[in-house]
Amino acid sequence: MKVKEVAELVGISVRTLHHYDDIGLLKPEQTTESGYRIYSEKDLETLQQILFFKKFGFPLKKIKDIINSPSFDREEALQVQRKMLLEERARLDNMIVTIDKTILHTKGEIHMGDKEKFAGFDFSKNPYEQEARERWGDRAVDGSNAIINKMSQDEQNAVGEAFDQIYKDLAAIRHKAPDSDEAQEAIKLWYNYLNKIGSYSLEAFKGLGQMYVDDKRFTNNIDKYGQGLAVFMRDAMAVYADRSKK
After folding, report:
1. Which domain holds residue 176?
2. Which molecular function term from Gene Ontology is one that the record holds (predicted)?
């Protein structure tokens, strides 16, 4: 399908689809010699996912991170989104009841307590983003944190010192090629150490490296050891994961 056909099918603008292409969120499988974008069935499935997440208030950058995560599973995403919609429907039903009661209260037919007047309102942090973060973002990181939190203070200090030394060693070689023998040997030590305190598959390890760059909190902390270390680690971790799978 051409971009105009997709826009008409979905009910969004051609400009929106162009923007998704420009930022790398949804790049059509084909582009003709004349420059026309051609969207495949797979592209439409990805667009559906994007719009579902957008419906729940996710920023485009976060959506891009989620659907490009090595651990992202489309069927699992649909199950989670279904759960989100059911919860949203229940909340809306509750608010409709509140409106109906308020109408009767305004007419003087019933009396509403103060708490009843605000039933269904929820201004808390988006719970769907938290669930998505746990499933497709840094679930492995959280698992490691849970293990660390169970350690004694001395054990935690030892872990912190080990992390510190590994980061320093990696920072010292961050100007080398990520696929060099030296870089790969150092990043292997990082992979092995992480698996002492947690459980990281090669895909999760690669995804973790990507998060070092995508999540500025990680980038800022890692780059304290040397500017550009987060990017170096991401690239080296990706090479290590891809090579180890062969």
Report:
1. 139-244
2. DNA binding
